Amino acid sequence: MKAAAMKNEKVTVQLYKARNITTGALWSIVRYILIIGISFVIVYPILKQISVAIKDKSDIYNPTIYMIPVHFTMENIRLAMDILHYGPLLRDTLLFVVSTTLLQAASCALAGYGFARFSFPGKNILFTFVILTILIPSSTLMVPMYLHFRNFDVLGIVHLFTGKEGINMLNTYAPSLITAGLANGLKSGLYIYIFRQFFRGMPGEIEEAALIDGAGGIRTFFRIMLPNAVPPIVTVLLFAFVWQYNDTFYSSLFMSQGNLMAIKIASLPADANQYLPALLGVGGGTNVKADPNHVSMLVDTGILLAIAPLILMYLFVQRYFVESVERTGVVG
Amino acid sequence: MNVKKRTLKQKRAALGIVFILPWLLGFVFLFATPLIQSLHFSFNALKVSPGGGYTLDFIGLKNFKDALYVDPNFNRLLTESVTGMAWNVPMILFFSLFAAVLLNSKFTGRPLARAVFFLPVILASGAVASAQASGLIQMTGSSEVAQELGLAQTGFDPLIVVDLLAHAGMPDLLIDYIVDAVQRIYEIIRSSGVQILIFLAALQSVPHTMYEVAKMEGATPYETFWKITFPMVSPLILTNVIYTIIDSFTDSSLTRMIYTTAFQSQNFGLSAAMSWIYTFVISIILVVVGALISRRVFYNT
């Protein structure tokens, strides 16, 4: 009797086990299908662009080609680089983006620390203003900012000393650098919020210990707090870099003639149409029209060239990207 | 001296103000001043003089009236962006939560999958995205060819899905919604990168013990999701909704219209009035959504 019951139980346990294994296996298959499917949707445009970039002109009208071209060529990349003046363009863009990013991270870290660790009159109201800067659409500030930097003059100082109207700062790096340095640039409110959340989570004992050992507030910040704040710094640097690199709104507002990637990419189709015949050596008259398909090929190659630095960077830092957001404590 | 008499508390307060000083300066001169100026401009006709200055002419509410009653596109674009936002937010939210849960479970190749899923965060803003979209259309030159090729290549007929769902007895509106989501999947994935990141961070912060207890008590994964995961990440739903709303507005056609009104038609006053109407509409939406969601959110404190 007893033995039979035990045997029965054993069988049921085994059945349960088998069921668990099958549902587990089925679920992991479904999961892989979903993940591979979604990944494909994300990666597909990039793959397609790469395929177009290395495709020869003669393959455009070959309908049998899917993704992998018959005639490989570097011609597209060379032409697109010529049209974009890729080398100087990339150098200028990186210089601009890196400098604004660093300034922005620095000013936002200071503000975030100030909001997180000190209490002073009006702190809560001021922090509400930080949130307000996130919420108010930038188009509301667009016109006054434009006029302001077109005729830059803080409290009439320039006018007082030189007797002239203010300085026209448009099409220089100055407007972006000033807004970034004063923690009011692109999405600065968000970065202040990230820093504040992180610094609030750090134990107060560290600061007390530093104070007792004789470090002042500023020294405590630079020697103790900042070296410990690597996750939010990485997060903010990454986001600031990427968003600044891709930004068209402020860059076209302040530097419409600037040598920036985001602006040049927007005008690439027109540029390609204009310069392609001359580059190919078929004459530059107005009657000579480039093949529209060839132009679109070059536009695709140009886009690929524009996002290439971002993708390269992402390959190296994507690990930190995910980890740092989790550790920043944005959630808490 | 006054300085010597200050208490530690006052010193700390002063130091705090020193730390936020750059931001405070920026806020006063680069945010508050332009904000008030912009409001001022919206009641005036603004003329830019070639030297660098500008002159203002008070015209009362005319700019607002022009925006709402005279301009042929403003109302249409405003309603379009608001309805588009209302249509998209649930999709993005649902997808990003789904993707975050997917990425949070353990499987081989997870780092790679994560790297791919966050690629849109990098590529999905501003110039690159719009250039990419136009690039895809231009790939084949004419739109006709693109359409033909598209039909030939995808081979996916949404009618099959419609039929299937209709037979299952779903309401028409829901079917429309799902089919629309399926067809615009690239757009949705592209705009949900940051949201996935936020949800993923939230999922990581759910204590493991809760799941262990649930497993001990015999909860199925489905129950575990709705009884533990969902309430625990629900505060972040509010964050994500607000982020999605703001994000959808920063790149809308209306923003572009406000921009062209100012810098191509040189009608700065009208542009300021438009942007104020826009800001007003957005703030109402944010307040309503915030109030609705925050009442249902579960805070684990």
From TrEMBL, chain B:
Keywords: Cell membrane, Membrane, Transmembrane, Transmembrane helix, Transport
Signal peptide positions (record): none
Topology term for the membrane: Multi-pass membrane protein
UniProt xrefs under CDD domains: TM_PBP2
Residue ranges occupied by any ABC transmembrane type-1 domain in the UniProt entry: 78-297
Listed transmembrane segments: 12-36, 85-103, 115-139, 188-206, 226-246, 267-293
GO CC field: plasma membrane
Gene Ontology BP terms: transmembrane transport
Subcellular location: Cell membrane
Keyword Membrane found: yes
Family: Belongs to the binding-protein-dependent transport system permease family.
Protein name from the UniProt record: Sugar ABC transporter permease
Species in which this protein is naturally found: Cohnella nanjingensis
